[in-house]
Design brief:
- By secondary structure, this protein is an alpha+beta fold.
- The protein has helices at about 145-150, 175, 275-280, 285-290, 300-305, 305-315, 320-325, 330-340, 395-405; strands at about 20-25, 30-45, 60-65, 75-80, 110-115, 120-130, 150-155, 160-165, 205-215, 235-250, 255-270, 360-365.
- The chain is built from 9 helices and 12 strands.
- Strands 3, 4, 5, 6, 10, 11 and 12 form a 7-stranded antiparallel beta sheet that branches. The chain has a 5-stranded antiparallel beta sheet with strand order 1-2-9-8-7, with no helix packed on it.
- This is DUF4331 domain-containing protein.
């Protein structure tokens, strides 16, 4: 998974569990950057009567670093409040919800957006309504209308959306976590099975999305709109966090849990699959609670990833060159921890300095690809607007990162190395099969409806 249930403790707290972060120059408006943070993984659409929602007791944040320190120079904070309109019914809605202000919606959510810069907080807007979840055609008969009503315009040309969306990530979880198998290459596995197409385990599941669109000059260190892709000021670092109060106690009078004390970070996410695949299990929750600027202590797991050693074992005779490679993985270090310096890829750089930190690194001077022409393999596929230059919804990050770990990107920093033939072919065999992505903000597809979704089948053999 990108970061769905990636650590033992946060997997027990899905409301605060970040699943994916995206950052890209808007194809709708190239003068803007879109920042997206998803939370609450693997939502079954039919999970009533208590449907999924943001946590009133969680501080959600999207951070931007722009000075090469890998520390948050700008943060956007999101706090949620839930109301119960009719305390005498168990129902989420008592009739069709034809408007996000409908009284038939019994449990609406509202939120505030706050910008923090240089320690100073500015509340941008309060009491912004979320849309309901997609219950079904009787309860939410025109879901696109409800979602559109939840796209809010803010000062300085900003836009914001917070609510349920279809998960835009795709991956074959059932195969990958069954001893590192990739279904298209099943016959080459140490324990061979019939070769078959991959199965997108995230299909039909929803997440809760916070999406923000802001002007480029609001995010750069000098308030400019850079045009030189090789200039240091052109690259920003992006990550998301969720925090809870230091203590939490049950209030018998209200029947709710109440937080006390300072905020403590419990989840963070920058690049996809870092905590999921590279960080050892015993260190995952500590990693979630730490700041990106302290990630040097985890660099050894990037420089010598466990999966690099497992691939030659799980796929005998397929990765002999990878098995023989013993140098630290400077290519992965650049992709995930520092950004790619000038001169490695002609005309491109997203280097943020020597401080090693897990952040998405977006070069805002590189224009977006024309919609429909994006290459899912991003930078390694010849599309400089794609991952690891930020991350778009269409980027096939599983294939990109598996191929990178398999040695495909080593020649970028070590020209004497020739990758195994399989490094350019390895993939999990899946594609995006959830609700269609949108051409306009917030870009993620509409969430699957509870009534409309058909549960999958189960097999034990």
């Amino acid at each position: 998974m990108s970061s769905h249930r990636e650590a033992p403790e946060i997997s027990k707290d899905p409301v605060a569990d970040s699943t994916d972060v995206y950052a890209f120059v808007s194809p709708e408006d190239p003068g803007k950057v879109v920042l997206i943070a998803n939370f609450i993984p693997l939502q079954k659409p039919d999970s009533g009567p208590n449907f999924f929602e943001f946590g009133d007791d969680v501080l959600y944040e999207i951070h931007v670093s722009n000075r090469g320190t890998s520390e948050a120079d700008i943060s956007y904070q999101f706090r949620f409040t839930t109301e119960v309109r009719n305390p005498n019914t168990f129902l989420y809605n008592t009739g069709p919800i034809d408007d996000i202000a409908s009284e038939a919606w019994n449990r609406p959510q509202f939120y505030s957006v706050t910008r923090v810069k240089d320690g100073k907080k500015q509340v941008i807007k309060r009491n912004l309504p979320c849309p309901p979840v997609n219950v079904g055609p009787r309860s939410t008969p025109d879901y696109p209308k409800l979602a559109a009503q939840a796209v809010h315009k803010l000062p300085r040309g900003r836009k914001v959306f917070a609510g349920q969306r279809a998960d835009a990530f795709w991956v074959d979880l059932g195969s990958i976590f069954d001893l590192g198998a990739l279904r298209p290459f099943n016959q080459a596995h140490l324990i061979p099975l019939a070769t078959m197409d991959g199965i997108n385990s995230v299909q039909s599941y929803n997440v809760h999305t916070i999406a923000l669109q802001v002007s480029i000059d609001e995010l750069t260190r000098d308030g400019s709109v850079p045009s030189n892709p090789e200039a240091p000021k052109s690259t920003i670092g992006v990550w998301a966090t969720a925090s809870r109060r230091a203590s939490r106690m049950y209030d018998e009078k209200t029947g709710t849990y109440v937080g006390h004390g300072p905020w403590k970070q419990v989840s963070r996410l920058g690049n996809p699959l870092v905590n999921e695949v590279l960080i050892p299990m015993a260190k995952k929750d500590k990693w979630n609670a730490s700041e990106p600027s302290g990630d040097a202590k985890y660099a050894k797991y990037v420089d010598k990833p466990e999966l690099q050693g497992l691939l030659p074992v799980l796929y005998p005779d397929v990765f002999p060159k990878l098995a023989a490679y013993t140098k630290p993985r400077a290519d992965l270090d650049a992709i995930l921890l520092t950004g790619i310096p000038k001169g490695v890829v002609p005309g491109f750089a997203n280097y943020t300095g020597a401080v090693k930190a897990d952040m998405l690194r977006l070069n805002v001077a590189i224009p977006p690809a024309t919609p429909g022409t994006e290459k899912p393999l991003g930078l390694v596929g010849g599309d400089a607007a794609g991952f690891p230059n930020g991350r778009r919804l269409v980027d096939d990050v599983v294939t990109i990162e598996v191929r990178a770990v398999a040695g495909l990107t080593i020649p970028l920093v070590d020209p004497n190395y020739t990758p195994d033939d399989a490094a350019a072919a390895v993939q999990d065999g899946t594609s995006y099969t959830n609700s269609p992505l949108l051409d306009t903000f917030p870009f993620l597809g509409h969430p699957g409806g509870g009534y409309q979704t058909t549960p999958g089948t189960t097999s034990v053999s």
